[in-house]
# Entry
Amino acid sequence: MPEFYPPTTEKDIELAFGQIKPYMNPTMAHYESSRCLFCYEAPCVKACPTGIDIPLFIRQINTGNVDGAAKTIYNSNYFGNICGKVCPTEVLCEGACVFNHQDVKPIEIGRLQSFATHHVIETEKNLFRLPPNNGKKVAIIGAGPAGISCACELRQLGFEVEVFEAKKHPTGLAIYGCAPYKVTNEDVLDEMVWLQGQFGFEVLYNHKIETAEQIKGLEASYDAIFLGIGLGETRSLDIPGQDLENCVGATEFIEQVKINPLKTRVGKKVVVIGGGNTAMDAASESARLGAEEVVLVYRRPKENMGAYGFEYELAKSAGVKGIFCAVPVAIIGNGQVEGARFIKTKTENGRVAMEKGSEFDIACDTVILATGQEKMTGFLSLIEGLEWNKDGSIKVNAETFQTTNPKYFAGGDAVNGGAEVVNAAAEGKQAARRMDAFLNKA
Amino acid sequence: MPNLAANLAGIRSPNPFWLASAPPTNSGYQVMKAFDAGWGGAVWKTLGVPVINTSSRYGAIHYRSNRMVGFNNIELITDRPLADNLREIEEVKKYFPNHAVIASLMVETKKEWHQIVKDVENAGADGVELNFGCPHGMCERGMGSAVGQEPSVLETITRWVKEVATVPVIVKLTPNITDITEPAAAAALGGADAISLINTIQSIVGVDLDNFAPYPIVDGQSTNGGYCGPAVKPIALNMVKNCAQHPKVGIPISGIGGIENWRDAVEHLLLGATNVQVCTAVMHYGFGIIREMISGLENYMQEKGFEKLDDFIGKALPNVKTWENLNLKYKVVAEINAEKCIGCQLCYTACEDGAHQAISLPGNGSRIPAIIEENCVGCNLCSLVCPVEECITMVRKDDGKEHETWKDYMAADKAPTQFNDDRAGGKGHWVPEPAAALKQ
Ligand SMILES: Cc1cc2nc3c(=O)[nH]c(=O)nc-3n(C[C@H](O)[C@H](O)[C@H](O)COP(=O)(O)OP(=O)(O)OC[C@H]3O[C@@H](n4cnc5c(N)ncnc54)[C@H](O)[C@@H]3O)c2cc1C
Ligand SMILES: Cc1cc2nc3c(=O)[nH]c(=O)nc-3n(C[C@H](O)[C@H](O)[C@H](O)COP(=O)(O)O)c2cc1C
Ligand code: SF4
# Structure
């Protein structure tokens, strides 16, 4: 008996994508916050890339100062609610909680964080007062977590800010990528609306920057430019059959799931190729959308998967099966996908070697490639003097986030090569402070 | 942003949060660190002739998973030489001229009092606090609470100090007395500029069941200690209120006792304290708790539209009356929110066994109890035991038009005066037959 069926109504979608970190009610928040020890130089704070003063906000929740708790969170991280829900807290704040050392359940920091921030979003609370404009203007390319965090911080520093976004919605992969059972689109957009209310900046949607003229135009009208462009489409493999129908890239598949889950068709038998978190998400989401069988194929042993252990566990709990030490050599089919051919591998001294003659086929009607995202070097080459690393990530000064063209700063996935929302939020904010130091230096 | 600046009898501090005279103010290092963390003032660990302390000094009450809800110590005043303390006071004041440094003092003779007051003033102290409160050790030597328990002695010593002091003088009171307003009034009479309360309460926090000695154990034996921490707040609040309302006291109050977060502090202020002092909470969590206290206080003031502390200091005092002035026509009844109820039935058993048998069980498989409104006297018990936030609320039932107090009843001869008076409040109130208890 399958756990999930292909959904046909909104209600089905809600069930398939039930929130794994639902909001706490006040009683839960009270008891959970009571458990916090208020550690000195708390390890959770160090483990949070944005350095939120976690013991403080938990204590504020406990003493009934929920607005103050939200302020503490937003002071460090503009994506407070989204992060509370999508951060891999098991390896960040909650993983650092000292209770782990006693085999006591760590404090549910992420959920407490969402409890406080959701409260101010819901009540449309005003927490920030902006200084008068300092007369300088910054353009931000990309309305993802990096770009928006940069925008908020710049507004707090008195800059005028305009954000240019290629897509229809803000928050980048937070809305187009993060698994629907972690955060709802509504929550994501609500936080964005609240942020815009607090910090007052414009986002121009469906506004892709893609020509040298546009770039020249921006350079002429703004004092600095921030690149928060993230990563590109799914990287294709060098194998035949990839253009068969129903062979899709994971990010493209997930984007469909996020924006239009009822119209997303998954086949009966799905093969997901890859071992990162995106592969886990694509597999879980396929299973939850009613695929009868979902097989995950990774080229190295299980222990070498890039995905977090808990993400793999989550996929398994949705019914996903894993096959390890195999690489695809061809997608088979005739117009439509009918299967995928793999060859077994051996990993020796970290290198993957194929075992001759070990080919095998898996019959399936959908193949999802979760083989990493492309870098945006095509776009980057339009900018004079801007350099990137071998892997395509933008070259920046590690402290200032300034690129090799001094007018440009950058942060988020485009710089770190692909990490989490919280890293993008941290880098965007940090970059804003450094832009201020650069532009307003005496 | 609201203004948190405080002014206790002329002693100014950037906020009302001071460290109480205790281990956290034992040295310049600690006070400096505290000011840097955000504390507004510090009352230096009591100065006098330095003592020798026991090893093993503290005990505590842990309640369920909460540690140190009550704290107990048998420590004495400072064990560091006066000159060291004076030098450090001077240094702290150099770095933090706008923060309040108060020297807590405890000596014996008039000559000593005169000398030490001059010494700490020379070091730059913004005020002095006379420690008439310590209830262990020092009182055996005729100081501390031994003075606080003798209003006339307290008044005399206060006068001695006022003879020479040029900075404000605070008298710190002991709660180990029947009526706190007597020593408070004596302090005012002696010329004190302010009082601070409470010091610790004489206590034994527990007994070692294997070694037959109370905690903290010093080589198999112990002595009574002084009790403080969250557990003592209710006692402190009542005493602060008593002093604030008493016409013969009339001087500002520094509230102390059980303050751990912004709420505790606001409570002290609402009952008439001009500022607050904290000891145990800092001994438990360190100076960092000040961040929560300041943020919480600011948030509260903003919410309420208070611009400065004076806007709400003493604001609850007009609402603290003697019992005879409370409205006997006011009537509340418990209401259970069935949607929030988790079915623990603690309210049922509390009311059934400990109150007025006004809650029933449905008996149809559901675990959600119901209030029997006729039997509910509106005592609040069920709402207090309920573990779910805002599940049981007390709902007003009278129309608010009638107001009659015990005083009115007495005047109108409506109050019961005989043992079997028909006017008894519980007359006709339904209770089950005694034997019904056994049938169940
Ligand atoms: C499938 C998937 C699941 C994920 N799950 C999680 C998770 O559970 N938890 C977590 O913390 N992180 C997760 N992440 C990672 C996280 O979403 C990213 O790290 C984060 O969104 C990066 O933020 P960013 O602002 O750097 O880039 P993005 O979020 O990619 O935003 C970049 C934005 O720039 C826009 N843009 C790009 N080029 C241009 C241009 N030329 N002109 C105008 N606009 C442009 C894009 O449209 C996009 O909106 C996931 C990622 C993926 C792919
Ligand atoms: C270990 C310890 C030592 C103390 N020493 C002094 C002291 O030297 N002088 C003094 O006036 N009060 C002293 N106190 C009392 C505190 O200043 C304070 O009045 C009391 O602890 C109540 O506040 P709290 O509930 O915040 O702890 C001491 C308290 C403790 C716990
Ligand atoms: S932002 Fe993420 S890592 Fe940081 S405290 Fe919040 S949930 Fe934890």
